[in-house]
Amino acid sequence: MGFMDIIDTLNGFVWGPPLIVLLLGTGALITIGSGFFQFAHFGWIMKSTFGSITKKNENGEGTISAWEAASIAVGGAVGAGNISGVATALAAGGPGSVFWIWVIALIGMMTKCAEVSLALHYRTPDITGDRYVGGPTYYMQFGLGEEKHWGGAYKILAVIFAIGIFISFVFTMQNYSTAESVSSTFPVLSMQVVSTIFAICLTIVVAGGLKRVGDFASKVVPFMCILYMVFALIIIVKNIGHLPAAFGLIFKHAFTPTAATGGFAGATLSVTVQKGIQRALYSNEAGWGTSPMTHATAIVDHPVEQGMWGCFEVFVDTILVCSATALVDIVTDMWCSGLNSATMTLTAFESQIGFVGRAVIALSVFLFAFTTGTGWYNYYDTLIRHGFQHDTPIRRFFLAIIKYGNALPGWILVLLSTKYDVASGSVWGVVDLGTGVPTFVNLIALILLSKRFFELMKDYKARYMGIGEVDPDFIVWYEDRKKLAAK
To answer: Can you tell me the distance from the alpha carbon of 232 to that of 224, in angstroms, rounded to the nearest whole number?
Structure first.
């Protein structure tokens, strides 16, 4: 049995019915428990997030602004999965996979809201005093370990979560997708050259730490999303006559196997569902537990205030950007061309608006992947800070490795994959493993702590939306509750 056979076997177990049911079930549980908040109060969410970009919170505690934290998180989510990942889902699962991408996004808006809110609620100042830290390992420690009296048993989930995240440190698609798309657009640049340039630029930004990453993301993320969406919409409008048929394919084949067409080999229902959910999760990260580690640094007055940025993040990433990619690939019939990964979308754009379209996709992939790389730096950094909770030389050593060596694994992956001619689909197989493992344990923690989130949501509605009565005894921040209990 070869390496990829082992990976496929592990993915078959990790991405079997338990995780799929857990993803859908957790999203449904939190959606229902919140009173279908993402649907009933969608306008409020948009007003409180996108509508408040220019507002600054001068009084709340935190490290960076809510907008900068959200920009890092959106940049971390909007990446290779939005272009090459969606194309991979179409190639393997057919148009029906898009339906499952949408389902995961719609309920995932509240999954992300819950994990971000809990990350803020249980956050704590780092021992160095230079920033706030929070995320799944912190709400596992404080929520499960202390509040639910698990003691040190929470470490089992925390360690499994951290191992899964660090799989993505070693096997990251960002550098690979960039090198693949740019080199195919500009043949004079080899994948190795593009990969090296990408790695150097990424290191320069990340070396400035969280605040430089936040400043960079807040400027680049809006530009890259708008650029991509404008050109995608041009193609969709140009093929507006094919749009009804595209939606027809998506809904028709969401629950039925897709017949073989052209270069497409057909798919079973299980593959369609699995690929749609895999690519949606890799793209919007709802339930993965990654972006809450960045959101936890935001300057806000209430955890749910930043939790709504989680809703916004999933909406932009999947309902807008992923949908644009999927519709472009379907209306141009590239989904059944036999192409895969970023090459499918590159060719779709080029077929409609010539070389300019291909160049736009190459630039978009570069920007998407770059902002993802800078965002993920903070996730690794946060896990190191939680794993080593005393300011020791070994802690500082690992933090330095994460900061200055963040781009190295992706660069090495490109060199090895090109030398040994490894297909992108094989690389995605390893990536899927690193996505499924931490998601599984994070969703378990979310379910166990869902009551606390519902309490936070109830308090937020009463304080800021005028829904219900404010409980004067409810303490918003876990750190304050611990201090009160200690008196």
So the answer is: 12
